[in-house]
Amino acid sequence: MPMLIKVRYFASLREKVGRSGDSIEAAQIMTVQDVWQALNQDVPLPDNVLVAINMDYAALDAKVRDGDEVAFFPPVTGGWR
Amino acid sequence: MPMLIKVRYFASLREKVGRSGDSIEAAQIMTVQDVWQALNQDVPLPDNVLVAINMDYAALDAKVRDGDEVAFFPPVTGGWR
Amino acid sequence: MSIKICSEDFDPFQAIQDHQQAKSAMVGKYGATSIFIGTMRDFNNDRSVQGMTLEYYPGMTERQLEEIVRHAQQQWCLIETLVVHRVGDISPNTPIVLVAVWSVHRGDAFDACRDIMEALKSRAPFWKKERLLSQQSHWVESNSDGYS
Amino acid sequence: MSIKICSEDFDPFQAIQDHQQAKSAMVGKYGATSIFIGTMRDFNNDRSVQGMTLEYYPGMTERQLEEIVRHAQQQWCLIETLVVHRVGDISPNTPIVLVAVWSVHRGDAFDACRDIMEALKSRAPFWKKERLLSQQSHWVESNSDGYS
Question: Domain D2-18+31-139: which topology?
């Protein structure tokens, strides 16, 4: 039974990949990094990228589960100094 | 020519001496401590007293000049914690 | 604790007063209120900034702000905390972020307010895109450190 | 810089907004506002406090507050500073002191606001007499340290 993973991109990363989100069906266990590579073969994952699984910060090698929402975004920047 | 010194007391010290101020004519050079002793012979100067000359903090052995305003008061306490 | 994300301009002083009125149990209990307001300036690194857009991650941003405030509540003795953050298109001289902390003693309010601001700056998912007078716009890539 | 001694109740939020309006050159220049409000509580060391009287030294108090703010201005990069302090008979749940600091970066505003509060607490000539529910009143003899 394939797993369904929802993917979201924010800010400059959203503009870079040209989409705000994706869906991916995974036949085997994937890490966050695997998800990126499957969806963005021609865009290398930026060094300083941040990742969240289900709205909590996660590591690039964290495993993704069925129904998870995975988000990729650049370092956060508030609106003031 | 005698010097005229104005003296003020605040808060608990004002209540202790029973006056809010004094005037004293000094024939010779006096320190802040001399001024207190001349005016309050029966009240020992409290250990933690603060002193100002002309509204600037001063030491007990600071010399007082003609026309000076000398103030004695307890440690300061703001209205909040 | 109250966490608000606003897509319209907000009045930080009204927000504080509304919060104090809503939480009537606070009356007479707090001695210290420490407040920080971050406001959009009209200059930045010598280039004239016309405005900016603040993107966020609905759901995650609120969750992270709650986590930050909860962490502060565990570290200091706080009575109430209010965080309001603006998102979307923002004009210069407009409030962007408000943090208000009420406590009995001033040390707790000062420390917690600052800690929340620093944590918010590094962990809350907001991304800033500046629009310059030249009509160019660009994503701002890093924050300055408030302690330096 | 603006230093005010009030013998009547004041609204800290109105005072801040009035100051921002009066100093129109500030508009768009500040990114950070750090505010502290000290409020009279209705309890203190487990004895019910009915009210208090804050005595001051007219002339010297203002001069010491100016000195404290001037010292902060030399240490940090500040745009504006407002200090308002209540004196006289004060009821519970009433603002006693307001310190508001405007700067470009938040570190300066945070540090200066706190420094001013700590200096004010130890050097500005105010003396507090508490009135208890028992109708007794007494001079408070020492301050707590905000850092502890």
Answer: Aldehyde Oxidoreductase; domain 3 (3.90.1170)
